[in-house]
Amino acid sequence: MEKRKFLSILAMIVLAIGLLAGCSGGGNQSTQTQPASGNESDGKSEEAASSTEVKGTIKIGGLFDLTGGTGDVGTPYAEGEKAYFDYLSTQDPVNGYKLELIGDDYAYKIPEATKLYQKLKSKDKVAAILGWGTGDTEALRQLVAADKLPFISASYSENLKNMDESPYNFLTAASYSDQARAVLKWIKDNHTEGTPKVALIYNDTAFGKSPIQDAKDFAKEIGIEIVDEQIVDLKALDATSQLLNMQKKDPDYAIIQETWGATATILKDAKKLGLDTQFIGLNWSTGEGLIPITGDAAEGFIGVVTHAFPYEDLPGMEEIRTYLESKGEKLEDKDQKFIQGWVAAKIMVEGVRLADDPTTGEGIRAGLEKITNLDLGGLAAPITFTPDNHGGTNQIRLAKVQNGKFEVFTDYFSY
Fold first, then answer.
1. Candidates 3.60.140.10, 3.40.50.2300, 3.40.50.620, 3.40.1190.20; correct CATH number of 176-305+398-408?
2. What is the pLDDT of residues 183-212, one digit of tens each?
3. What is the Cα–Cα distance from 299 to 232, expressed in whole angstroms?
4. Which one of 97, 101, 390, 398 has the lowest number of neighbouring Cβ atoms within 10 Å?
C-alpha cells in the first residue's frame, strides 16, 4: 500500500516537471518550433525568412549624362531611374532576386560611354543596361548584340527598331521619327489655310539628326512642304542668325529636336524677332525645366508628351508619391523627366519579372518580349514588345504652354 502511494506521488512529480518544462519553452526541440516573440526576435525571424526567399542579386548597369550636353534633361531622368531601384529595395524580391542599379556619368561622350559599358559588363557583371544618348547607344549596339545585354535607352532613334542590327535594344516611347510623323499628321489635320509650310531645327548630333530624313519623307507623303532646316547647337546661347534665315522662308510651323537649353534659346530669340511661327518641340524639348529658363517666350509653345507630368492626376502617380513621401520628398518638386526615368526602369524590371531565367541577358530579353500592353497607370503609353518588334509604342500626346504651365490638350495618338 505504501509502495503504491509512493509510486503515485512520484508519477505526479514527474508530470509536474514535464508541464513546467513545456510552459517555459525549454529544450532544443521547443526552441526550434515555437514562433519568436518580441520585436527583436520578430526582426530576426523575418530576416531569416527573407534570406531563404532571395536567390541572389541581379545587377543592372546605368549610363547617365549628368554633366554633358544633354545633362539638363539627363540629370532628372537618371534621378528617376535611381529612385525606382531604391523603391524596389523596399519591396518583395523580383522573380526571387534583389535588383541593384550600378552606373556613372559619362558626360555625353561616346568614348567614355564605351569605357563605362565595358566596365559594367566585365567588372560589374551586369545582366542588362539602362542607357542614355543616341550617339552612344547606336555606337554600342553591335557590342550589346554580341554580349547579349538587353539595353533600354533614353534614345528613341528609329535606327534602334532595326531588329537585325539592334536585337537587344528596346524603345520605351515613340521613336523620334514616329514623334515627328505624328506632329506632321496633327499639322496636316489642323492647318486651315493652304499647304502647311514647316521648318526643321535640330543639332548636329546623332540625336538631333535622327528624325530629320524620316520627317522630310513623311511630309512629302502627306502633302506638307518642308521649307527650311537650321542647325542650332545643344549649348547655343544665340540662335538669331538661324532664325533670320528661317524667317525668309516664312514657315507656319517649326519642329524642334533639341533639349531644354537650346529650345529656350530658340524661343527667346524668336520672341525678340517677333516671329509668328508656331514652334513644336519633340519630347526632349518638352518639360517643366524649359519654362523657368525661357520665361514668357515659352507661352504658346507646343511639345510632344511621351510621359506624364507629375501634376497630372493619374493612377500611376500614387506609387511615386508614396515612395517620395517615405523619403521626405514631394512629387510636386519633381519633373516629367524624373517620371520618364522611373518608367524606363520600371519597364526593365518588368522584363526581369517575366523572365524564366532573369540572371542572363538572354533570359531578360525573353522576359521583355513577353510584355503585352503593359499598363503604366497613365505614366506613359502602354508598351508591347514581341520577338519581332522592340518598338514599344508609336503613341504621343501634345501639350501647350499656357500661363507658364504645360497643359496636355490631346489624348494619345499616332500618325
1. 3.40.50.2300
2. 999 999 999 999 999 999 999 999 999 999
3. 21
4. 97
